[in-house]
Amino acid sequence: MAAFQDQVSENFDQLTVAQQDLARRVLELGERVAFMTSRQLGEAVGQSDAAIIRFAKALGYDGFPDMRDAVRARLLDEVGSSGMRQSETNDISAFRRALVTSGTSMIEETERLNAHGKVSAVVDLLISARQIFVTGHGTTYPMAVYLAMHLRQSLDKAQVFNIEHGDLADRFRSVGPKDVFIGIGYPRYLPYTSDILKLAREAGASIVAITDRASSPLARIAQQTLYAARAGSASAWWSQLGTMFIADWLNALVLARDETTITHLRRSDEEWKRLGHWKSDSNNARELSLEQHRLRSLRNGAEKRPDSLNASAPRRPRK
């Protein structure tokens, strides 16, 4: 918190009277600021989230995420990741409400951070790519697997590209200009992900970063960057809801735009049948297949489709 306090002290005289009062109230909240969205902080101090963003910029930050990162960085240095976990409440109802509110705010903030045109451009890259590789290490590793699995299901050309496979040099031989690498990373930014993205870019691949701020080492390498809202919750010190929302957003647009996905889903259904999926005791013949799920969702959304799915980009023609 010390770095943030120094920033407040250096800029205090230039703040308006209202912002000076806001600065005092924010300082009183202490390290809790590291786990809040702009909306949550605004509610805590009786201000709008727009006022919080203006306050952060008045202190010299690029915006609220940048200000919050300053608080987090200091806290992470002082107590480590284990010490950044928030204390839990004994009130289970309050705990559940806080968790739901925090998650909802992160998803909404993630949507605000990413213009639809930017997300649409990334989807165009994915649909036209020869191969898609997703890399993420540490706590983002499960997110890399999640995104790669869904894109593989939809487009049949995605896979995880991480150091644990032990054959990076061999795998890089097949990387070229028609490929797309997606790197996922947050503080502390693990160098493995950045190194892989650098080598992929040198090989001519298009680079997409999913990260938390423009100053992230991943964002500096990428041609396209998507930003996930990050905040601590009462159950875990970092939540990945923002990342999962971006993954679902990308995959939903891919399914809506690329008509060839129905072929891939149909083939997956056939393989599941060969594996005996619908013959097992836990399933029955009435269970919808992947293809049926997709067709039903398209029918349900035909009359009233969200703007994010009603994209103007041309559909990929069938081959």
From TrEMBL:
Coiled coil location: none
One of the GO BP terms on file: carbohydrate derivative metabolic process
Keywords: DNA-binding, Transcription, Transcription regulation
Chain segments carrying region Disordered: 296-319
Transmembrane spans: none
Domain HTH rpiR-type: 2-78
Pfam families the UniProt entry points to: HTH_6 (PF01418), SIS (PF01380)
Domain SIS: 122-260
An MF annotation (GO) of this entry: carbohydrate derivative binding
CDD domains: SIS_RpiR
UniProt name for this protein: HTH-type transcriptional regulator HexR
Organism annotation: Bradyrhizobium ivorense
